Amino acid sequence: MRAAILQNNLMHFNPTFSCCLKPSFQLREMRLKDFDININRRIGAIAALSLVLLAKDSISTKLAYGFDFQLVAPDQTIEEAESGIIGHAQALLQVKELIESESWGQVQTAVRKSSPFLKQDIYTIIQQKPGNERPLLRKLYSNLFNNVTRLDYAARDRDASRIRECYENIVMVLNEVLSRL
């Protein structure tokens, strides 16, 4: 019985096709140049999308406590800078306890939290000084924050001797800056 059913179905099956299908190997026929352009466009689109998605993390400095060393016109007055400079300097110097306990990650975090405020205070005060005093103060300012950056890198590398050396330089330069301000 089964053979009869199959035989009947075969008789109604028309072996000729009324349309032709496009070959599935069209990719081979694409020119190599067109293929490269499509791949490059995809890579470019993926890169642009990644940049947009990851940009929010790199823009936010609160998350990383990143350094902001650009010189901009401060939003604070000279009085605010003078009243806050001692507290911000002490906050930077309190890193010594973390250095002695050798908790390098916390050293980096503390340095990154306290140094931008001190930087802004010193910059505001330097801008209010007479022109003949500014070059020396700017040199000390640069030396101070270069040592802060070196301390951060040394903490990242867990280099205890460099950390202590940078900290001593910071203390020395900071005392000189504060005495001249």
Automatic annotation (TrEMBL):
Keywords: Chloroplast, Membrane, Plastid, Thylakoid, Transit peptide. It holds the Pfam family PsbQ. The keyword Transit peptide applies. It is found in: Plastid, Chloroplast thylakoid membrane. One of its GO terms (biological process) is photosynthetic electron transport chain. InterPro entries: PsbQ-like_dom_sf (IPR023222), PSII_PsbQ (IPR008797), PSII_PsbQ_pln (IPR054099). Belongs to the PsbQ family. This is Putative oxygen-evolving enhancer protein.
